[in-house]
TrEMBL record:
Species annotation: Trichuris trichiura (Whipworm)
Location of the Cytidyltransferase-like domain: 11-218
Signal peptide positions (record): none
Record pathway: Cofactor biosynthesis; NAD(+) biosynthesis; NAD(+) from nicotinamide D-ribonucleotide: step 1/1; Cofactor biosynthesis; NAD(+) biosynthesis; deamido-NAD(+) from nicotinate D-ribonucleotide: step 1/1
One BP term from GO: NAD+ biosynthetic process
SUPFAM superfamilies assigned to the protein according to its UniProt record, in alphabetical order: Nucleotidylyl transferase (SSF52374)
Protein name: Nicotinamide-nucleotide adenylyltransferase
């Protein structure tokens, strides 16, 4: 398949417990920005649910989170999910997921069949794509996140310097602004991030949205409506499987 710009895939890592409309909105904002302001052409977006061993409070089983992510992205022709992270023997570092997806993108771009990257995500063999070093000149996987994740680079012992450096230098980030954060100032004040500032794309969300999975779970526990905060398909799945009902 031919592309007018450097093929780029956006990766969003997280619990997706459950996935909300805000998760999908981030992809749309990021794609618009990159396609209009950079040499990249976004050809795919990927939700990567975290492994069960992550141990986050109230984290429901990966089987449920994978299915909800599939349902949440079912109406999109370019955003899909990757089960690789959940299929590993234990929790994976973010940079490992980026390496995996970069290798996957490289293999996809050399396929003869004309299918979308989202379609390829659903058919590739999990066991045959290894975490090898990507060829960044031909394509790019970028980490899509909120400003809070970028600012977590300063949290002691949360990220290794090597991982942060690789994420910033090899992959790059697309950071969506959120109320109460100032990612522009953070980039200026953090020496490591400032060094690679050309690879950090800060995108302003002009229509603020404070929806969070935590708030969704709280509302569900209290039997309050969450319709239009998650997709109808996700809501039906939650209700059918009686998820997030325990206090």
């Amino acid at each position: 398949m031919t592309h007018s710009g450097i093929p780029c895939v956006l990766l969003c890592c997280g619990s997706f417990n459950p996935p909300t409309i805000l998760h999908l909105r981030m992809f749309e904002i990021a794609r618009d920005y990159l396609n209009e302001n950079t040499d990249f052409e976004v050809i795919g977006g990927v939700l990567s649910p975290v492994h069960d061993s992550y141990g986050k409070k109230d984290l429901c089983a990966s089987d449920h989170r994978i299915e909800m992510a599939k349902l949440a992205t079912s109406s999109s022709d370019w955003i899909g999910i990757d089960k690789w992270e959940c299929a590993q023997s234990s929790w994976s570092r973010t940079v490992q997921v980026l390496r995996h997806l970069s290798r996957l993108l490289e293999v996809y771009l050399h396929r003869k069949e004309k299918i979308s990257f989202k379609q390829y995500l659903s058919i590739y063999d999990l066991g045959h794509v290894q975490c090898e070093n990507p060829v960044a000149d031909e394509s790019r996987v970028m980490l899509l996140c909120g400003a809070d994740l970028l600012e977590s680079f300063s949290v002691k012992d949360l990220w290794s310097t090597d991982d942060m450096t690789e994420i910033l230098s090899t992959f790059g980030m697309v950071v969506i602004t959120r109320s109460g954060s100032d990612p522009f100032r953070y980039v200026y004040e953090n020496d490591l991030v400032y060094r690679y500032q050309k690879n950090v794309h800060i995108v302003t969300e002009w229509i603020p949205n404070e929806i969070s999975s935590t708030a969704i779970r709280r509302a569900l526990r209290r039997k309050a409506s969450v319709r239009y905060l998650v997709s109808d398909a996700v809501l039906e799945y939650i209700e059918a499987n009686k998820l997030y009902t325990n206090s």
